[in-house]
Amino acid sequence: MATLSELLADLVADVDGVFLFSPSGSYYEQFTDLEEDLVVVAPENTVGAETFVELPLEFDNVRDRVKFSIEGSMDRGLFEEGDVVACVVSTFGGDIDTVVRVRVGESMRSGVYDLFVNSRADPGVIRDVFEVAIELGKKGQKGKPVGALFVVGDAGKVMNKSRPLSYNPFEKSHVHVGDPIVNVMLKEFSRLDGAFVVSDSGKIVSAYRYLEPSAEGVDIPKGLGARHMAGGAITRDTNATAIVLSESDGLVRAFKGGKLVLEIDPEEY
Ligand SMILES: Nc1ncnc2c1ncn2[C@@H]1O[C@H](COP(=O)(O)OP(=O)(O)OP(=O)(O)O)[C@@H](O)[C@H]1O
Ligand SMILES: [Mn+2]
């Protein structure tokens, strides 16, 4: 019969690395002589860890937290496909209470981590817009597939490179993405033409914008139409990130610097 300690020993046997999520200084000190590679994951490296992966957001969901930190560590070349890591994390918000054993896989490299960390807009704003796009992709609008284009960050410049298709329902309002009511509005307005423009801090600046970037030097996969071309091109002309839901193939894509940086099937997310 196995004891609980043996069970736990199996969980951490032969791991290549240990991820500590937002440890306190004293907790971290206990691990500094560890044989395995130690990685601290947190919004900031307050414990002065040698190996640190920035996770700029608090994800409620432990699975997301683990997934994105592994992606961040892969981006940094710390781990690769097939490595096994033990993630030491707090699930209920207090002291560390959980150990998760994970095998690193290429499929974890979705591009989402880089989008959160390296966009000009606040990471939380990117996350909120991304989640609206994923949800719209899953459910559609009243059961029908719907497309949408969100241009996030550098809103002043984006406004200069676009024109209104209709009156702006967000004019003079001070609403932000992430607010549940706003998410309902975004979904409702997504049936109509044009792009949403969102500021770095998440303020919805406009709906119904027709983007007029120059398409010169934009490198976008063939077969994508005008919505994707405009979304991609505006990110070359400005420092914005574009998040696009395709009405025709149902995928969510993101563009940065004029390039496609992410392609995700909402059904599998
Ligand atoms: N320059 C633009 N700025 C803002 N919105 C645009 C622009 N061009 C197209 N759109 C929007 O994209 C919608 C779909 O256009 P189109 O089918 O050519 O794009 P697409 O890339 O194939 O997207 P989808 O995969 O959703 O069909 C248009 O009805 C319009 O609302
Ligand atoms: Mn189309």
Automatic annotation (TrEMBL):
Gene3D superfamilies per UniProt: DNA integrity scanning protein, DisA, N-terminal domain
Matches recorded under PROSITE patterns: DAC (PS51794)
Ranges where the DAC domain occurs: 109-266
Pfam families according to UniProt: DAC (PF02457), DACZ_N (PF19294)
Cofactor: Mn(2+)
Any one GO molecular-function label of the UniProt entry: ATP binding
Transmembrane segments: none
Domain of life: Archaea
The reaction(s) this protein catalyses: 2 ATP = 3',3'-c-di-AMP + 2 diphosphate
Keywords recorded for this protein, A-Z: ATP-binding, Manganese, Nucleotide-binding, Nucleotidyltransferase, Transferase
Keyword Manganese annotated: yes
InterPro entries: DAC_DacZ (IPR014499), DacZ_N (IPR045586), Diadenylate_Cyclase_DacZ (IPR053542), DisA (IPR050338), DNA_integrity_DisA_N_sf (IPR036888), DNA_integrity_scan_DisA_N (IPR003390)
UniProt name for this protein: Diadenylate cyclase
Top-level taxonomy: Archaea, Methanobacteriati, Methanobacteriota, Stenosarchaea group, Halobacteria
Gene name linked to the record: dacZ
